[in-house]
Write a structure and sequence with these properties.
The complex is a heterodimer. By secondary structure, chain A is an alpha/beta fold. Chain A is 55% helix and 12% strand. Chain A has two domains: 130 residues, Rossmann fold (3-Layer(aba) Sandwich), CATH 3.40.50.2300; 72 residues, Winged helix-like DNA-binding domain superfamily/Winged helix DNA-binding domain (Arc Repressor Mutant, subunit A). In chain B, β1 and β2 form a beta hairpin. Classes of the chains: A alpha/beta, B alpha+beta.
C-alpha cells in the first residue's frame, strides 16, 4: 500500500448509488474504495493510510453518525463528510458538531461534492502532518531530564536565570548549563522558538495557568 | 188395506230411495265403492221384500215355490254385496272367510235351481191361510229340502266374518263403524237366519219376514253412510267461515302491504298468467287492469341487471326454489328505481316449478343512502391515507432521492468519460443501464405513493397477500431504518388470494405498521422490532398480525382504540384505527387489538379468502 495516494472511502447501503459516486470520483482521478456498511469499512480500513470517508447518513444497523463517533475515538482519525438522501436539521447539526467536513444532499451539485472531498483530503493531510510533527517534537522533549523540564517550565514563563535559580534553589550558573542542554537537545536557537515548540508539543497542558500573560 | 201390505210396500220404497241416493253419490265419486255396494244391497233387499209379499199373497203352491226360487237370486246378491260392503267399509275381515261365504252362497244358489222346487222345499204341497199382523196371509205346507243346510251355513259364516271384521275395526279404534255396520250385520243376520230356520223347518207357523231384519241393518248402514253427507254440510259451513277468515287475513295483509309499500306478484307457469297487486303495478309502472307478460316485466329491468335477475331465477328453479335479487328498473318516464326482490318457486310432484311468488320493494332511498355512506367512507379513507403519507413523506423523499442521486452521479461520470478522446464505451453503456434501472426504481416509489394518494373507489379484486405485505414493506422500510426499528415480515408461501381492494388493504397495514413504530419510539433502541406475520387458518381465513415490542396498550384504552376521535398522540386525529376497522369490515373481515404476553401490542385482522369462482 502506497502511503502517497490518499483513498476516498465511500460507505453506503445503496449499492446503486455507491457504484455511481465511485465512478464519478474515479473519473476525477481519485482512488476510491467502496463499502456497503459502516462495519465493513471499520474492519477493513488501514488506519495509517491517508484519505477521507464519504458516508450515507441513513444505513441499517450502524448509521453515519455512529460511524462518525467510532472514528473520533480512533487514534488516527480520518475526516468524514456526509451524503444523505433527505437530511433533517437535527442530524445535520449533530454531524457538524461532531466535526464533519460537510453535510451534503446526494443530489448536491458535483462541484460541491468534489470540493468537499478535496477539502477533506487536504485536511487529512494537514492533520496527518501536524500529528507527525507533534509526534517528532514529543520525541525530542522526551530526551529532557526531570530537572531540565523544571527549568524549561520557568524559562517559557519568561523568568530570568537568577530567579529560576532562586526558585529551584540552585545556582544561576547551573541554570545556564541546563538551558544550554535544553537548546541543544531541542535544536532551537532562541527563547522565542523554544516557547513556540513547547506550546506546539503541548508539554505543559495547563499552560493557561502558568502563563503570566493574563495578569 | 192390511198392515202387511203397508209394511211390505214401505220396505222396498225406503230401500230403493236409499239405493238411488247412494248410487248417485257413487256416480259423483266413482272411487267410493262402498256407496255402490250399499246401493246394490238396498236394491236386492227391496226385490226380496217384493218376493216375500208375493209369497204371502200366492194363489197356488207352484206359484209360491217359483217365487221363492227366484227370490234366492236376490238373496245371493244381498249376501255377496253385504260381504263386500263390510270388507270395503270396515277395511277389515279375513279374505278366506269372505270367500267361504261367497262360495257357499253361490253353491246354495246352484242347489236352489238343481234340487227340489227350490233351496228350501223339495215340494210345496199346499197353502194355508193364517192371520199375521191382523191380515190374512198364505204359508206353505211343504217337504223341506235338506240342501237348505248349505244356505244356512253360508249365513253362519257371514255372521262369523262380520263379527271378526267388527272386532278388528273395534281394536283399531274405529268403534263407531264397528258398532253401526259390524254389529248390526251380525245381529240382523242372526235374527233373519234364525227366523227363516224356524219357518223352513216348519217349526214356526208364520211367513218369511227376513227383509224386516234386513231393513234394520240397512237403516243402520244408511245412517252411517249419511254421516258423510252431514259432514259435507259441516265442511261447507266451515269453508264459509274460513273464507270469511281468509278475507279478514287478506284485508289485514293489504293494510300491511300498503304500509310497507310491498308489491306482490304471482306467476302461474303452467297457465302463463301473472297476477300482481296494485302496489306492484304502480311500482313497475303498469296500468291496473292490463294483462302482464313476463317479457314486459323483464324489459322494465335495467339492461345491466337483466341477466343477473334471469340467472337468479334459473338458479332458484334448479335448487331450493328461493331467490333474492337487487336490480334497477327503468320506468316508462325514464326514472330509475332500485328494487329488492324476494321470491319462491312452488314445485309439482315431479319437481317441475309451477308457480313463482315474489315480493318487490322499492329500495331506491336505501341505495341512495348506502351510496352516500360509501362515498363518505371513501373520502375519510382517502384523508386517512393522505395524512399517513404525510407522516411518511420524509422517508419517501429519501427513498426517491436515492435513485435520483445515483442517476445524477452516473450521468456526471458519463459526461466525463465522453470527454476523453477515446472513451471507454463499455463503461458508458454500463452507466446508461444503471441510470435506466434507477429511474425505474424512483418511478415505482412514485407509483406506490400516487396509488395511496389517489381518490379511489372501493374496487375489489383478487389480491395476493404476499404482494400486499411486500408493497407496504417497501413503503415503510426506510422510515423504519431512520427510526432504528427492525422491521420484519413473515409470509408463508402458497397462500390463497383474498378478495378485496389492494389500496384500501395496504392503507390498513400501513396504518397499523406506522402506529406500531410510533408506539416503540421512546423505547429501548437496542430492541425495537415491528413484525408483520401472515397465517392461513384453514379452511377460509387469512390472518395478518402487526406486532411491536413497545409498552403495549393500556388496559383502559384497549376498549376504545377503535372509537373515532380516540387518540393518545398529541397531534393525532383519532381516525386511523376507526378507518382501518371500517375498511376491514367492508371486506367481511375483523380487526382487533390485544397485548402480547411477551410484551408489546398486536393488531390482528382476518380476511376471508377469495371464493373459487372469483380467483380467475
Amino acid at each position: 500500500m502506497t502511503e502517497t495516494s490518499p483513498v476516498v472511502h465511500v460507505v453506503d447501503d445503496d449499492v446503486s448509488f455507491l457504484t455511481a459516486i465511485s465512478r464519478l470520483l474515479r473519473a476525477h482521478g481519485y482512488t476510491v474504495k467502496t463499502y456497503s456498511s459502516a462495519r465493513a469499512f471499520l474492519t477493513q480500513r488501514d488506519p495509517e493510510a491517508p484519505g477521507c470517508v464519504l458516508a450515507d447518513l441513513q444505513m441499517p444497523e450502524m448509521d453515519g453518525l455512529h460511524l462518525q463517533s467510532a472514528l473520533a475515538d480512533n487514534p488516527n482519525p480520518i475526516p468524514i463528510l456526509f451524503l444523505t438522501g433527505h437530511g433533517d436539521i437535527p442530524s445535520s447539526v449533530q454531524a457538524m458538531r461532531g466535526g464533519a467536513e460537510d453535510f451534503l444532499q446526494k443530489r448536491a451539485p458535483k462541484e460541491k461534492v468534489l470540493d468537499a472531498v478535496t477539502r477533506a483530503l487536504a485536511r487529512d493531510s494537514r492533520e496527518r502532518e501536524a500529528r507527525e510533527r507533534q509526534r517528532e517534537l514529543r520525541a525530542r522533549f522526551a530526551m529532557l531530564t526531570e530537572r531540565e523540564l523544571e527549568v524549561l517550565a520557568h524559562v517559557v514563563q519568561g523568568q530570568p536565570n537568577k530567579q529560576i535559580g532562586w526558585n529551584l534553589g540552585i545556582h544561576e550558573r547551573t541554570v545556564k548549563l541546563h538551558r544550554t542542554a535544553i537548546t541543544t537537545k531541542l535544536k532551537v536557537q532562541s527563547v522565542a522558538e523554544l516557547t513556540r515548540l513547547t506550546q506546539e508539543a503541548g508539554i505543559f497542558p495547563p499552560t493557561d495557568h502558568t502563563f503570566p500573560k493574563g495578569q | 188395506m192390511g198392515l202387511v201390505t203397508i209394511i211390505w210396500s214401505m220396505i222396498p220404497s225406503a230401500c230403493l230411495t236409499l239405493a238411488a241416493i247412494d248410487f248417485l253419490t257413487w256416480w259423483k265419486n266413482r272411487k267410493a265403492h262402498a256407496y255402490l255396494l250399499f246401493s246394490l244391497l238396498a236394491t236386492s233387499t227391496a226385490a226380496f221384500a217384493f218376493c216375500e209379499l208375493w209369497m204371502m199373497r200366492a194363489q197356488t203352491p207352484l206359484e209360491f215355490a217359483t217365487v221363492l226360487k227366484w227370490g234366492h237370486a236376490f238373496v245371493w246378491v244381498l249376501v255377496i254385496t253385504l260381504v263386500g260392503f263390510v270388507r270395503v267399509y270396515l277395511k277389515a275381515g279375513r279374505p278366506w272367510l269372505a270367500w267361504t261365504v261367497c262360495c257357499l252362497r253361490t253353491l246354495a244358489l246352484f242347489l236352489n235351481f238343481l234340487t227340489g222346487q227350490n233351496l228350501n222345499y223339495r215340494e210345496v204341497t199346499g197353502l194355508r191361510h193364517i192371520s199375521f199382523l191382523g191380515d190374512s196371509v198364505k204359508i206353505p205346507e211343504a217337504v223341506p229340502n235338506p240342501w237348505m243346510i248349505v244356505g244356512q251355513l253360508s249365513l253362519v259364516f257371514l255372521v262369523i266374518f262380520a263379527a271378526d271384521a267388527s272386532i278388528t275395526a273395534w281394536r283399531r279404534g274405529d268403534r263407531h263403524r264397528a258398532l253401526t255396520v259390524g254389529a248390526s250385520t251380525v245381529f240382523f243376520t242372526l235374527v233373519s237366519a234364525g227366523q227363516s230356520l224356524l219357518v223352513f223347518w216348519g217349526i214356526a207357523r208364520m211367513p218369511i219376514v227376513a227383509t224386516l231384519s234386513f231393513m234394520g241393518m240397512i237403516a243402520a248402514m244408511g245412517y252411517e253412510l249419511s254421516g258423510g253427507a252431514i259432514r259435507a254440510v259441516q265442511l261447507d259451513r266451515q269453508l264459509l267461515e274460513s273464507e270469511a277468515g281468509l278475507r279478514e287475513i287478506e284485508e289485514r295483509m293489504t293494510v300491511a302491504v300498503e304500509a310497507a309499500n310491498f308489491g306482490i306478484w304471482v306467476r302461474d307457469l303452467a297457465r302463463d298468467e301473472i297476477w300482481a297487486t296494485d302496489q306492484w303495478r304502480a311500482l313497475f309502472g303498469f296500468p291496473a287492469k292490463e294483462r302482464l307478460e313476463f317479457d314486459d316485466i323483464l324489459r322494465r329491468i335495467h339492461p345491466d341487471d337483466r341477466d343477473g335477475f334471469r340467472l337468479a331465477l334459473k338458479k332458484a328453479a334448479e335448487s331450493n326454489g328461493r331467490y333474492e335479487a337487487e336490480y334497477r328498473i327503468v320506468l316508462p318516464d325514464g326514472e330509475e328505481c332500485w328494487i329488492d326482490s324476494h321470491g319462491r318457486f312452488e314445485f309439482d310432484g315431479s319437481g317441475k316449478p309451477v308457480i313463482l311468488r315474489g315480493v318487490s320493494l322499492n329500495i331506491t332511498a336505501r341505495k341512495e343512502a348506502e351510496r352516500e355512506t360509501q362515498i363518505l367512507r371513501q373520502e375519510i379513507a382517502h384523508v386517512g391515507r393522505v395524512s399517513m403519507m404525510g407522516q411518511l413523506a420524509s422517508a419517501l423523499a429519501h427513498e426517491i432521492n436515492q435513485p435520483l442521486g445515483a442517476i445524477l452521479r452516473n450521468a456526471e461520470a458519463a459526461e466525463l468519460f465522453m470527454q476523453d478522446p477515446s472513451p471507454e464505451l463499455d463503461e458508458v453503456r454500463a452507466i446508461l443501464a444503471d441510470i435506466r434501472k434507477d429511474d425505474q426504481r424512483a418511478g415505482s416509489v412514485i407509483d406506490r405513493m400516487r396509488a395511496m394518494l389517489k381518490r379511489h373507489d372501493l374496487a375489489k379484486q383478487t389480491v395476493d397477500v404476499g404482494n400486499l405485505v411486500g408493497g407496504v414493506s417497501a413503503l415503510v422500510r426506510t422510515d423504519a431504518s431512520v427510526r432504528h426499528v427492525k422491521f420484519e415480515s413473515i409470509v408463508p408461501a402458497n397462500l390463497p388470494p383474498v378478495f378485496g381492494d389492494p389500496v384500501h388493504l395496504q392503507q390498513v397495514l400501513l396504518n397499523l405498521i406506522v402506529n406500531a413504530m410510533d408506539a416503540i419510539d421512546g423505547g429501548n433502541p437496542e430492541h425495537k422490532v415491528v413484525s408483520v406475520t401472515v397465517a392461513f387458518h384453514r379452511p377460509q381465513t387469512i390472518e395478518i398480525a402487526v406486532s411491536d415490542s413497545g409498552p403495549g396498550i393500556p388496559a383502559n384504552a384497549l376498549a376504545h382504540i377503535f372509537d373515532p376521535f380516540f387518540t393518545t398522540k398529541p397531534n393525532g386525529m383519532g381516525m386511523g384505527l376507526a378507518i382501518c376497522r371500517t375498511i376491514v369490515e367492508a371486506h367481511k373481515g375483523m380487526l382487533w387489538a390485544e397485548n402480547r404476553s411477551e410484551g408489546g401490542a398486536s393488531f390482528r385482522l382476518t380476511l376471508p379468502i377469495a371464493k373459487e369462482g372469483a380467483t380467475k
